[in-house]
Amino acid sequence: MAERNQDEFLDDIEQAEAETYREDEIEISDEAAELDTVRAERDAFQDKFMRALADAENARKRAERDRREAENYGGSKLARDLLPVYDNMKRAIESIAEDQREASAGLIEGIELTMRELISVFAKHGVRVVSPQVGDKFDPQVHEAMFEAPLPGTKAGEIIQVSAEGFMLHDRILRPAQVGVSSMQG
Q1: Which of 29, 51, 104, 161 qualifies as a cystine partner to 180, CB 3.0-4.6 A?
Q2: pLDDT tens digits for 5-17?
Q3: Superfamily for 74-182?
């Protein structure tokens, strides 16, 4: 009977060890599951962080682009409103006859100085004159065809008359140059 008790005792020890091992296994699997959960949460937070970082960078770039646009093109309405002043001053200068130049030299010089100053201010703010010449090729990006007419000795699409100069604000058209275009076919 002592043997049996000893066998039972050994069985009891093995069974206790097995239960302890199962408990350790359960504890380890619980810890592994908890670790997996923590890793998944970490990955989710890292993903959210990276997205928020990218959104912030995109917002910064968009704000910088908007600031540049406002700086470069914010004055386009004022510049456009000043174009008729340029046109009128240019017409005034062009309409002065040679015999009038001597009699009104001071007045004419004042008008020409004012015109140069206006051109200087335009240039300072990125406004430049688009001044096509007769014989240039018509470009719909910077020219507006006011009329089309056949003119002997010209090719179709050639500028035959310039009615008004155009203006660019940096790389944008403020006003296209107004031109007449030849419709002659060679």
Answers
A1: 161
A2: 777 777 777 777 7
A3: Head domain of nucleotide exchange factor GrpE (2.30.22.10)
